[in-house]
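Attaching the record inline, Q. Sequence:
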Amino acid sequence: MDLHSSIETLDKAKAVAPVCVGKEDEIKQSQRITARVHDREVVVFYHGGKFYAMDRHCYHAGGPLHRGEIEDINGQPCIICPWHKYKITLATGEGLYQAINPTEPSAAPKWRSKGIKQRTHKVTIDNGSVYVTLSDLPIRCDSDYYADKYKKTGSSDTKK
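Structure, as predicted:
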C-alpha cells in the first residue's frame, strides 16, 4: 500500500463518518435545523416523532427546503419546496406529483412518484446528540447537482 492509497482510504472513511449536528431536545423543539456534514449542506427535520435528513437544496431549482412546510401526502410526510411547491417525501426523497389517467371514467387525480430525486441521509441519536451520516447510495440523485454547487461556493443562507 502506498501513501496515496492510504490517504484516499482515510478520506473515504471520514466522508461516511457520522457528524453531530445538534442536541436531540433542541432539534425536537425547533423541528428543523440546517447543518454542514462533510462539506454537504443538509436539513434535519423532526416530524411525527421521527428524525429525517436530506440535502438542503431542492432537486428542482435549488430552493431552500428548510423554509418549506411539511404536509402529509398519501400517508407520507413530505416537505413542500417554498419556491415551486415541489413535494418530496421525508423518508425516501421521492418526488411526488398528481396525475390523471384520461382513460379512467372517474379521472380523479392520484399521487404518483417521480422516483428518488432528493438524497436522504441517515440520522442516529446517541446520548442526547443527533448525528447525520451521509448517504452512500451509488445512484446519482437530482439534488446532487445543488449539493455539489454549494459545496464549492458555500451558501449564505444556513439559518435554522
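Helices lie at 3-16, 24-30, 144-153. Residues 1-11 have pLDDT under 50 and may be disordered.

More tomorrow.
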